[in-house]
């Protein structure tokens, strides 16, 4: 850090904002981790996926990370980590880290500038656009990868401080469906489960989830199950998980809704439903039962392509189960009728009484490390803490909790991600601030997305790297610290707040996202409104205040030290919970728990199953709807928006390739170790019958065309995919050149998993 930046900023800041002056400590390791433990290690929740494993980071005498291992005491991962976790420090040391702000010059090149100039240009250009086109003409797109406190700060700053109306996050691409489904069916976005349910079920139904690859540590939890469970995988592909399952239901792509309604019909017809539970805790069952009558086994077999015996066996397995858990991920969420599909899974859990008990639940598994934080705290389409912008009482509550004038809080929900991009096309959105996501690579039909970004009057990208496709399109790049270079909390799939710790220096002038937001507030002129946001932990206290009385109430979590000692805490954890039951401390966790009465059943030898460490929702059968009853929600299935035809006869499926790749590979591609664990170039899975018919051999170059464009990919000939289908891993830049821009109408989540394509052998 140069002293000149320090001096420049000091000159521009008055005494009221002195604390915002950049100083050398901003660009280094300000202090050894506050939560350094006696063994010279720090614990930090992993910054990749939503499993939320705890990593033990081993430090040198200055408090900087040397290497890491998996934390054996954490109730999530029990000493395990996947390849990404073991390599979590490597991307921090990559040579292409953004180390200084970059501004596009008159020659069209990005050139280094100091923070003062960057922030003046950022605020000046956005204000100019707002003055000309209205406050709503600038928007932001955020991420599920930054800390909860940072998400909360960004949403509050952009909307209450900078006057934006619209902002969304890349969680729209993975979890919006689960949010919409839970809200309508259960009254709140409330995944009901805890990871111990993987070990307590006697039937585990994985719907559109390749758990072995996408959530390998959760698969290990399945392997810990001592009840010899039936493991059912519903997926068109014979994925790694399907091959390890006891039943694989290889349905036709996007026929899920028909199958789910057909299962409901069979279970009702055979009396395999829990009438007492339905009568006491749900509403709408009679209408649903009537609706499901149309989904006869004959119809289901015809529309799903399943054998009658497969359907029969699946229904019988669910009917026989005492503790059935249903789990879904992107195979459901990324579909054209995703919300109704997720709700059809919830319907099955409700009608069989498989919710609120150990080993049960209608359970969405999240994608990113902090998608759950984004769902509740990013203030995008929800107001902070799961509130509603359109509700005056909610606006008043948040105004008081944050000390923000109520009139600064928008009265309507934001446009969703796809609508913000469409807003660029029609000229309504002119300025965009993208934080820690790679829109130009990951958005569906990315060619169009990239063209839209180019139409903006001003694009700001805040990221660890200036080399992403999106950063390369920016007018201004703000260099950000990554996981391990800052502190804050993540919320994992089972609603557990976990702490991340600063264990490394961000390079050059890169700053934490939290610090960048403080500076933007100051340069925008709204710094006083955010004076209380003085540190991530101070922001955490504000977040707590916003959740009081909500289903996600966390007022009982005292502070970061409490989270650290407890091994993470699942929401809700209210003040009353905290008074009634101490959360076990982490050191000597097993010994702490051995004497507890609840462990008399022998679970002392499995401390991670302790009830205080593993809490699920709805044990009392009360849901978050106005009458306390869960709703049966249903709708007739619709055909996919782009079915195969004579010109494009294949159905393109997309999904995760390996457990060593993360999304657009922005970070995982930085690791020599991880790169050895997956193919360097894009490949396409093709059935041997199709390969024979088209004269294609394994390894041949293929041309895959859709209505959006054409790519080449190496042929991977395998019977794990059905004839007439082709699979591309989502991580490669080529994949989304082909996908079809369509969204589920309720969640507005993109339907990545079905597009029509043609396949041929590339000319030599
Ligand atoms: S990427 Fe996910 S499964 Fe792997 S170590 Fe991190 S949190 Fe655990």
What does this structure look like?
With 764 residues, the protein is an alpha/beta fold. The chain has five domains: 3-93, N-terminal domain of TfIIb (Single Sheet), CATH 2.20.25; 102-172 and 379-547, Rossmann fold; 192-365 and 625-631, Dimethylsulfoxide Reductase, domain 2; 568-609, no CATH class; 650-761, Barwin-like endoglucanases. Helix content is 32%, strand content 16%. The protein has 29 helices and 26 strands. A hairpin with an 8-residue loop joins strand 1 (41-45) and strand 2. Helix 4 crosses helix 24, helix 10 packs antiparallel against helix 13 and helix 10 runs parallel beside helix 16 (338-351). It is globular. The termini are far apart. Mean pLDDT is 91; it is low at 1-19 and 583-607. Iron/sulfur cluster binds next to helix 2 and helix 8.
Keywords:
six-stranded mixed barrel; Rossmann fold; disordered N terminus; globular; 32% helix; alpha/beta; 764 residues; 26 strands; 5 domains; 16% strand; binds iron/sulfur cluster; Dimethylsulfoxide Reductase, domain 2; N-terminal domain of TfIIb
